Amino acid sequence: MTTTPDRTLLARLTTSCEIHLPGDPGYDAARVPWNTAVDQRPAAVAIPRSVAEVQDVVRAAAATGLRVAPQSTGHGAAALGEGSLADVVLLRLSGLTGVTVDLGAGTARVLGGTLWRDVVGAAAQHGRAVLHGSAPDVAVAGFVLGGGLSFYGRRHGLAANSVTAIEVVTADGTLVRATAEQDRDLLWALRGGGGNLGVVVAIEIGLLPYADVFAGMLLWDRERAGDVVPAWVEWTRTAPESATTSLRVMSFPPIPELPPFLSGRDIVVIDGAVLESDETAAELLAPLRALEPELDTFGRIPATAVLDMHMDPPGPSPAVADHAVLGPLDAAGVAAFLAQVGPGTTSGLTFAELRQLGGAFARPDAAGGALSHVPGSYALFCVAMAPTPQAAVAGRAAAFSVVRALSAWSQTGLVPTFTETRVDTSRFYDGDDWSALCRVRDAVDPGRLFVANHGL
Asked: Region 333-346: what's the mean pLDDT?
């Protein structure tokens, strides 16, 4: 920022909410998102601890000519950080957390900044599971509002389709509860519409009847990628919807914090969940196990353990990424992928992932929201660690190289939660759904008060 905002105006934001202004001792710590490669410099950072404080901030920001950017953890902050936030109040929801399970209704009510680890743990106490993501420290709201790919998703669909109610503070500071019976259009728009329509302060999501699942990972040295990648692609063509898996080619630096089977190594990993009996799951995995992985952890595990299976970073990290949705991969497509990240390559990526789509992911849900399905066979997600600006430039180039190499197999659509840069957001939705979503946004936020990482 080149100028300091008028502190008298910013002081009107609230008299009770925790506020950090540029130059304050706590400002720099408060503005840093989970993705620490993103340099967010807003006019102010607000950390409310109640719905009333959220309402205060929204009303005061509007009165002072500022905009509002809701953010829980900031995993997907890169696109937001590409624009100026000089007239934006960053509304961090990390102080508004909690989860309540209602077994009778078959739902969990989750406050706006709550992390998946807390929701998964609360559901597990009742022998239930939820359509969570692959990392324990991702917030539920951002994941669900962006659709949400779960390792249970090929059977149960996008996480957004499991939402039964959303409580949102709209542009005039009003708290609205949107359900299928009340404010139906708003509920539809919020399920996939991201942070464009208001500040989501609570979400009700459906529970799944799983106390434990058959899940885990298979691991090989990257030298085996020429065998593993085509075998997995072939396996995915006929795998039942009960199986949702991922294949990643991963590179780890030689650091002592990592276990020996990862430190300094290039590996290939297949992980996921198979919602079948142990016997049926073992039969399904037999072709992959026939490739003799050096590590095989697939087995019956508590639902809570699925959060640790994907080996996502355990805390805030600097990263850059690129993404595409792919159709079916033929032999040439597999070869193109291996030419980028297979044996002997030096891509500079931390990982290149192919997340299995299809099944319920790909089917439109008549009762779903603005984003109810993702057509395609695989979500390609390429990530590089970026501890310095120079590393970020190199990492973006490396990730784009893989996406470009697979452009012949790419589709027009994208997955919001995998998209780390600014894009044409119509690519997230079917044409009619995107137009309808924009109409709802125009009705509830005609003044464009809210700023989302992926704006409409």
From this structure: 97
Q: List, as own/partner pairs, every contact residues 96-99 make where C-beta atoms lie below 8 angstroms and the sequence separation is at least 24, other chains included.
A: 96/48, 96/49, 96/50, 96/51, 96/54, 96/201
- Report pLDDT digits (tens) over 96-136: 999 999 999 999 999 999 999 999 999 999 999 999 999 99
Q: Which amino acid is at 268?
A: V
Give the burial string for 116-128 (b: 16+ CB within 10 Å, else e). Answer: bbbbbebbbeeeb
Residues paired with 247 in a beta bridge = 270, 354
Q: Tokens for 138?
A: 């991702």
Ranking 242-251, 404-413, 425-434 by mean pLDDT, the lowest is: 425-434
Measured distance CA(133)–CA(111) in Å, rounded: 17
| CA-based nearest residue to 142, from 157, 132, 152, 156 | 132
DSSP-assigned letters across all residues of 160-192: GGGEEEEEEE-TTS-EEEEESSSSHHHHHHHHH
What is the CA 332 to chain-centroid distance, rounded? Answer: 30
Q: Which residues contact 133 (CB under 8 A, 6 or more apart)?
A: 116, 143, 148, 149, 150, 159, 417
